[in-house]
Amino acid sequence: MWFAVACVVDCGGDWEAFDVRLTRERSGGVMRGTYLEPLWSHLLDLRERLMAAGLGAAELAGGAARDPKVVARARSKVWKQPLDGRAKTAPMRRTPSRRLSERALTGAWPRFPVSPQGPYKAFAEVVDLDRHHGQWATMAVAEALAETTVAQVGEPDGNTAKLLAVRRAALTCGVRALRVCDDSCGTLGEWLRRAVAEYAAVPWRRTAMPANVFWQDFLELLGEVGDFGGTYQQEAELFLHAGVRSDVDLVETLTRTLHSEYAAARWDFRAREILGLRVYAQVAAGAVDRFTATATVLGSEDWQPLEAMVSSALQLGDRASARAVLRAADRPGFHRDWVRCRSIELDGEGLT
Fold first, then answer.
1. For labeling, which of 92, 200, 305, 310 is most exposed (least CB within 10 Å)?
2. In the chain, domain spans
């Protein structure tokens, strides 16, 4: 009702105009963040239900839009007041990014040759995921995860499909643990870095795992692990160990699809991250001929994937491709100054 009244009074009953204003009022016109997403998620759900019922904002608001007291309260709740946790609706809690995040952690499990669900239960038994863990307790959590991993890895007895399930289950439990832990000492984060490297090294092609299932799950998983630094400075190495060379076309297709999905969900930073993962997959595959096209899509939003392509091209003796990457990325963005400075530096290196 508050949304409908504010939409009628302040946006002429136009939900698109309401969406634009909601973004402006709740983000200051700078970025769409976690404070906006619950409200936007509620708006999506409301519009879907109204469309199904053949109703508009005016029909829902009715006479309330002419009551000064109701209008004042609606404006305050919609445009100004912080969102009270107790007032959150189901769509406010199950936001698009949260749904995508949960899919990344467990969504592909039914399509694994051996589901990670069974091994996951053993990990969840040794980590209390329903409460916050302080710094010292977090160190114990990391130790428990490490010990449970060692114990379960010994159980498959040469069965690669079971080993894949165990390693994958450990990663989901580790990500969920980091969400409820104070990892100031970095113990749990360091365990996560090792765990994702061990998972990437499992020879998954020896199992009945379809390549498209593995790679989509891998890409989504790296996004979640990357939130806690688990992939930092080892992204290309992870793709190399997972065997991306023979599937670079498939991975590129999947990253495009995921990028579109994240962008539609307004999960902006994850949409940028998936473009970075596309870069690291190509670097691992030595696909220099793809760098320029990818840099064109990436722009200057993130310097680290750009540097990965430039460095890879230079290591392969292809200075022309390194320059082409920087030219393609020289567009307005967070790191355009870096792009231009790196270009000058590269030109200088070519003269020495």
1. 92
2. 2-94, 97-285
